[in-house]
Amino acid sequence: MDGLLLIDKPAGITSFDVVRQVRKLAKTRRVGHTGTLDPDATGLLPIVIGHCTKLAKFLVFDQKEYVFEIQFGSEMDTDDSTGEVIKTCEWEHITQAALESALEQFRGPIMQVPPIYSALKIDGKRAYDLARAGQEVILEARPVEIYGLELLEFNAPNARLRAQCSAGTYVRSLARDLGRALESGAHTTSIRRTEIGNLNIGQAHALDAIDGERFTEYLIAPLEMLSGLPGYEVSAAERLSIEYGQRIEIAADGFSELVVGDTIILRTAEPELLAVSEIEEILEGERLRIRPRRVFNDSRNGG
Question: Is 38 assigned a catalytic role?
Fold first, then answer.
């Protein structure tokens, strides 16, 4: 049993709680998630099953979308409504026009300081564990990119927004910094992830609606789950070479944008995923040398 399962995570449980429930439904321990959601956040949580746990690192999840609500007037130690108030601020001066104007400075590449209550590690320890223990947590600003930031609704002191952002962006930090930019304070009151890469919430299933007896019907096949990567259909002879771990050479036609080290998916005629590979060398005569990194569907073993 191999594939990708998209879950619409409810609030109040951790991402690993979802993994535990899926293990029971799938009757296997080979289950993992790809991208943690905070316990109180909802929305799209991709779950990998079986051999696909080894393919998770190849998924193209460089862009994510969130719809979130914020409240102006206070900052929280967690940057969301689950924490303790650390600062109260005036908010009555914030107008929709002022908010729309403030959003502009957060579009594009920005530097962002993650929340101290996050899973980032400091000297091998999680930041949230240090914060809960009362220790001072100092996190450096790091580059992220906000591809799109849209105000959906404003009803002071509350607002609802949509953000498309790079992996590693914290919506809680975005809310906190937006409040400060408006000479106030702010924190998130809800966060919902609606897209990851080419996956969207419309493809996801409610956890309590999955029928364990028909579990495989909910899975996205390995080839489809990697559809965001460039692919090449191998011949019978090329398939055999790949299954033995050998390099193959292919025409560069259609792959002109790729460089050495880039990932390329090899598929069979059926079509099924054969292997994840990389471009090892660009050869003369507009050809590429391809090296298999992980063979997924090996016909020598009946796979």
Answer: yes
Tokens 């107008």, residue?
95
Among residues 299, 249, 251, 291, the alpha carbon closest in space to that of 274 is found at 299
Of 272, 275, 278, nearest to 296 (Cα)? Answer: 275
| Catalytic member of 2, 38, 79, 177 | 38
* Short-list 297, 103, 63, CA closest to 194: 63
Cα–Cα distance list, 195 to 10, 82, 120, 199, 292 (Å): 15, 24, 22, 6, 30
**Is the CB of residue 178 less than 8 Å from the CB of residue 103?**
yes
Query: 63-188 belongs to which homologous superfamily?
Result: Pseudouridine synthase (3.30.2350.10)
Q: Which two tokens stand for residue 190?
A: 């809800």
CATH superfamily for 229-301 is Hypothetical PUA domain-like; domain 1 (2.40.240.20)
pLDDT digits (tens, 9 = 90+) for 66-122: 999 999 999 999 999 999 999 999 999 999 999 999 999 999 999 999 999 988 999
Neighbours of 63 (CB within 10 A): 17
pLDDT tens digits, residue range 293-302? 999 866 655 5
Identity (one letter) of the amino acid at 169?
A: T
From the CB of residue 293, how many other CB atoms can be counted at a distance below 10 Å? 12
C-alpha–C-alpha distance, residues 37 and 45, integer Å: 7
Predicted TM-score of the model (pTM): 0.89
What is the CATH topology of the domain spanning 3-61+198-223? Pseudouridine synthase (3.30.2350)
